[in-house]
């Protein structure tokens, strides 16, 4: 059986400014660089990583053993479409007018929770077909929340906190 670990990318400048960037590229902040440099990882054979810049930068820093890295768009953050680039407070105001528990809602013509879950399932399927047994995925907060909720048989739109550089085992 494969061991799969999920890690959220290190803190970005946009995280510091409370800007939701979705699938836009962001840069790691000074704090984020330090987070990634000091992170202790479980043993792994391969990294499968989101192709967004903030995840790639995190992977480059933490991959001290020079293990293979596979970049994929399947591990990208949830697209929030036209809402990308707005401040957290504005996002909350827009979101309030919608049903927060609607897993099919597509903010700003972006992706629903269900869309993100389907992308993640494809990634897990690909990971299971590799020869690697210990897989370390570097991805984004919303995708991790959705994946963990699904694996724990909870509503996928249930909110939970995933900190930058936090590692969770996926079962």
Using the coordinates shown, work out and report the CATH topology.
Rossmann fold
Beta-strand segment tally:
7
Please estimate the helix content: 25-40%
Identify the CATH class. Answer: Alpha Beta
Anisotropy-based shape: globular
Distance between the termini: 10 Å
Tell me the CATH architecture: 3-Layer(aba) Sandwich
Strand-pairing-aware structural class: alpha/beta
| Physical arrangement of strands within the biggest beta sheet | 4-3-6-1-7
Give the overall pLDDT as a whole number. 93
Order of helices and strands: EHEHEHEEHHEHE
Strand content: 15-25%
Quick tags:
171 residues, Rossmann fold, 5-stranded mixed β-sheet, 6 helices
Entry summary:
By secondary structure, this protein is of the alpha/beta class. Helices cover 35% and strands 17% of the residues.
Walk me through this protein's architecture.
- The protein has one domain (3-170): Rossmann fold (3-Layer(aba) Sandwich).
- The protein has 171 residues and is an alpha/beta fold.
- The protein is globular, with a radius of gyration of 15 Å.
- Helix 2 crosses helix 3 (53-62) and helix 5 packs across helix 6 (141-151).
- Helix 3 links the parallel strand 3 (46-50) and strand 4 (69-72).
- The strands form two sheets. It has a five-stranded mixed sheet, sandwiched between helices.
- It has six helices and seven strands.
Detail the topology: elements first, then pairings:
Blueprint: E1 3-8, H1 13-16, E2 19-20, H2 30-38, E3 46-50, H3 53-62, E4 69-72, E5 86-87, H4 88-96, H5 113-128, E6 134-139, H6 141-151, E7 167-170
Parallel strand pairs: 1-6, 3-4, 3-6
Antiparallel strand pairs: 1-7, 2-5
